[in-house]
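To whoever is on call:

I kicked off a structure prediction for a single chain this morning and the downstream step that reads the tokens threw a length-mismatch warning. I double-checked the sequence; it's 470 residues and nothing unusual in it as far as I can see. Pasting both halves so you can look.
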Amino acid sequence: MLAPIHRTLLCPLGLALVAAWPLRAQEPPIEDTVRMEAFNVTAYHGKIPLIDGFTGQDFEGENSVVFKFAQSFNKLLLGYHRKLVLDEVNHLRFRLKLGQDFAREMGLLHTAFGFSPFALETSTWLRRERAIISRLVQQPFFKVKALVVWDLDRLAQIAPRKPDSKYAADIRYDPATGRWERRITTRWDVAFFTNQTPRGSSFATDKTQGLNLDTQRGFHFIERGLPLQVPSHAFQEVKLTYPIFYSDQQAGERELRYLQETFVANLYYIYDPFSWVARRDTRFRGGFAQDCLEHIQAQRIYVEDRDWFDGVLARFLSDVVTIKLQGAEEIYALHMVGKRLGESPRVLGVGLDLLNWNKGEKREAVDNPEAEALLNPASPAGVRYVLIDAYQRLGEPLVEKIAGRLVAQKPSRQKINGRAMLAQVIAELSGLPYEAFAQRAKLTQEANLARHKLTHPIPPPAPATDSGRK
């Protein structure tokens, strides 16, 4: 076993943040502590080039907002880069702690049910995230080659026609609103060679994404996901230009502040290397359902409908632990996130925009409106929420009575019907026929889920100059 490596990762306040993860699959997970080196990112320094969008040459205007924004650009980008790493380290620390707490609580539950000791499989935890963080500490993924500056007054004179410029591919005139808009499109490549097989093997993938910088709607496509063994050097640098609009008629602090704030807001969507693994609103969430299911399947449980019962019981016990540690809102929120990604998996930002602004661009993707969350109490997914509702109303006696019924079958080894047993327990504790309880639970839980709908309103129109609109 290799000894732990200790390095120091300093935040802007000089405080060391610690993240724990396995260095190798065979090493003890969680317990190894890794401290990463202080940021050594030197890419964001010096003057950012300013390019006149019309001519493709150096910008020679005198607009104060343009130059003040350019002067603050590297500071904003480096600040975001640092925040990205520190937020992710804190996120991983939280999830690791939650995993430890989950395993402890699940172990107590399994003891009450007479099951064998429970443990999570942690050998592969955070390996992709570790490679991404290592890369971020050493060098950025994201390099802005230049700011492309567009004079809105000149654009207004030729609208709806585009300028004759190679940079015009990233702007458009929207006749419906009478405004000019700008975008960024990027391609992220990952490629590496490994000697893990006798002949060696290579791996390559990419993701493409784009964002309307004024509406914050865009698209996100991943060709295929990353393998566990991806090294930090496999990620290729992403180079792009960033378009901004200006008007000599309006050059105040309000316009400067808008440019700065929207730049950082747009970075949140376009510069997220951790989305290679999964979006932050889904990663490490869900109560380790697969680990729980596999453990339940390995137990001796005397029910005749195990194909149905194992999944329902594993999900229920996982939900009980999640409610204890995080509250039921975590279950509702994750349910709605997963549902929305299933409806429109290619969305980036606050909505889907495929940004097919130019000839030859024919991106396609499903964008279904977010539907209401409807539950069917007769299905395993519906029974899950009936049990959640029962646990919220009846508390620990529900868990104890289910455990007691299963433990009672062990001496005789007589199999019972698991579905009927759960219905009987709920009816006995609630004083209602199961069907009536299930219908009430359906309505209550659908209302709870509806509070977490993800449909975002369209952002209000931005200030005229800074939004790039007339």
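Update from on-call: the warning came from a stale cache, not from the record. Cleared it. Sanity check on the structure: Confidence is low (pLDDT under 50) at residues 1-38, 457-470.
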